[in-house]
Amino acid sequence: MSTKPQSESPVDAPQQGATNGQSASDIRLSGDELLLSADSDITPTLSVVMPTLNEEGGIAQCIEWVKAALEELQLYGEVVVADSSTDRTPEIAAENGAIVIEPDGKGYGYAYLYAFERVRGDYIAMGDADCTYDFEELPKLLNLVRSGEADMAMGSRLEGEILPGSMPPLHEHVGNPLLTKFLNVFYGAGVSDAHSGMRVFSREAWETMECSSTGMEFASEMIMEAGAKDLEIAEKPITYHPREGEANLESFPDGWRHVRFMLVNAPGYLFSAPGFGLSVVGVLALVLAWSGLEIGGAQFGIHTGIGGGLLTLAGFQLMLFGAFATVSSDPVRGASDPFTTWFTKRISLERGATIGSVVFLAGLAYGGFLAFTWVTSGFSALPIAVADVVATVAVVGGLQMVFGSFLLGSVIRE
Question: Does 120 share its domain with 222?
Answer without folding.
Answer: yes
